[in-house]
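pasting DNA repair protein RecO for the record, 216 residues
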Amino acid sequence: MIKTKAFLIHHRPFQEQGLLLDFLTLEFGMVRCVAKNARKSRTKIPHFTLLDISLVGKSELKSLRGFEVVKPNLNLKKEDKFLLLYVNELLYRLLHQYDECVRIFNKYQTLITSIVIVKNIAKYWQLRLFEEVLLSSLGYELSYEVKSNKYYIFKDNIGFVEDKDGYFLGDDLQKIKSSFNDCPNEKVLKQWRNLSRLRFKSLLGNEPLKTKELFR
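structre below
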């Protein structure tokens, strides 16, 4: 039997009464398992909540033996849940089963805690910080070594390339880098969002995120 801390990321029907579950776990990364008869159970497995889960089975596809809520999350607002659904879709699409991702797990836990406390644009700041950790963990860390008075375009697998017709001003990119420590203003946050979308585009392929339209 395997026991680990986990967050439920995705679920879908499996056979007549079961569910196929994808968990982000502390020790094993993304783990897929089957919960038999879960759809007729009165006890639902909550999203955005830290869980202790127990898994059994010798194959890669485990079976869920049980779960316990470690810390209930009762204060999430509708906007918070939309943000976290977007994050869950990123994790579901981009992470491979059993790849080590302790840093992502810890940052996900921090994100859930933070967006309940902070307000307005600070929620989106926390979201951008999580995206940076996710991209870095996937091997796509970005260098922000640019000149403040020059314009740049972003190219996959290269980074920023100086271009007089570029979309990103070097000064704004430097402010994004500074925002890793302090919440930026709305203008910088918007540029950061646009940059994140470009960076994720090649990783996600032609299938758009289903939650994308929910976010500014």
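The beta strands are 2-14, 18-25, 29-35, 50-56, 62-71, 151-155, 159-162, 168-169.
The chain has a mean pLDDT of 91.
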